[in-house]
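Attaching the record inline, Q. Sequence:
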Amino acid sequence: MAVRKHAWAPRLRASTRGLRERAWWVMRRRGVFTLPELLATLASGAERDAQSNLGKYVRALARAGILRAEAHRAPGAALTSNGYLRYRLTVDNGRKAPVWRAVKGEVFDPNTGAAYPLRAREEAGDE
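Structure, as predicted:
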């Protein structure tokens, strides 16, 4: 059978395996985590400034109400450390990772189509 030069074929959309998407998978699996735990699990060194990237993403999810910062901190490595914030996943809508839209000031959930507005930092409990 001859194949035509311009035969129609369904084009599959490539799924992304970015740092934030992988972080979302780990957040869903663990339920409670700290930022250093996420970095130790996910960062391979190939990412550009993974700590800043994940930190901004986690704080945005917390301000949107998808994550909640717990009152009890995980112990830090340094003697004078205040410890690391523990985050708990409070809204788990599905497999697709929420998208932080910084310009619009919201977090979009592609699973449900809902947009969560970012609260003020004081309301979210971030420091």
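The mean pLDDT is 86. The longest strand covers residues 86-89.

More tomorrow.
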